[in-house]
Specification:
This protein is mainly alpha-helical. The chain has nine helices and six strands, in the order αααααααααββββββ. Helix 4 packs across helix 5, helix 6 packs across helix 7 and helix 8 packs across helix 9.
């Protein structure tokens, strides 16, 4: 694995020191599912290198950075915990893998990052590699949004993928025709603003490792759940 740059290490040192000096309070009522260090993890994931790592790779780097400043991982508010190191590793790793967005990161940008880090292969009649990238972005965006709709803005996605907005419009049509996307609501614009076109993305594992669109399949068709992203 590539080692973090000096810039990444300096950024981590700043963030970690701040949370050591000012430990976070317990989550508010209704947010008990959150680790106290949820926001710290989000800040650390604003660094592109750290955002690309799974928890089991990120935690040892945090340990190394803290050790360089004379701290153990338990300095993050776990010194008095009887389980000490075991507790902090378990909670930080769980939080790291649960947090999808950096503090300053938009969902679309995070989906692009995850698509680059863990690309999946979709069964399609189209040869375009960029279309495969588009499907990956839509897939990861839907994973973050869970049961909610997703938006696939043609201008922004075109800039990210290096193609024209018209090309993204075509990709959305292709994905709909192949059963990956389903239109939920058409765009609506007015002088005061507007609402983007809403989609849902769905796929499953076919008779190989490729993922196939499921919106066009008959209801009785049984299909496996798409695999989780690999750890590396």
């Amino acid at each position: 694995m590539t080692e973090p740059s000096a810039e990444t290490i300096a950024y981590m040192e700043t963030v970690l020191q701040r949370y050591i000096d000012n430990p976070p309070e317990a989550p508010e009522h209704g947010e008990a599912y959150k680790s106290p260090y949820w926001d710290m993890v989000r800040e650390l994931k604003d660094d592109c290198f750290m955002a690309s790592l799974a928890g089991y790779l990120a935690i040892p780097i945090l340990q190394k950075v803290l050790a360089g400043r004379g701290y153990a991982l338990t300095a993050l508010g776990y010194e008095s915990d009887p389980m000490g190191m075991d507790r902090v590793i378990e909670e930080l790793e769980r939080a790291w893998d649960a947090v999808k967005l950096g503090m300053q990161e938009a969902p679309l940008g995070a989906a692009v990052r995850m698509a680059r880090r863990h690309p999946l292969r979709f069964r399609t009649n189209r040869l375009s590699v960029i279309y495969q990238k588009f499907l990956n972005i839509a897939y990861y965006l839907q994973r973050m949004r869970e049961d909610d709709y997703i938006a696939l803005p043609v201008v922004r996605l075109g800039q990210m993928l290096g193609v024209s907005p018209m090309c993204i419009t075509d990709f959305r049509k292709f994905a709909t025709n192949e059963g990956f996307l389903r239109l939920e609501a058409k765009a609506c614009y007015s002088k005061g603003g507007g609402i983007a076109t809403k989609f849902r993305f769905a796929c499953g594992v076919g008779d190989g490792e490729e993922l196939i669109g499921t919106f066009l399949l008959p209801p009785a068709f049984e299909i496996e759940t798409p695999p989780s992203s690999p750890k590396a």
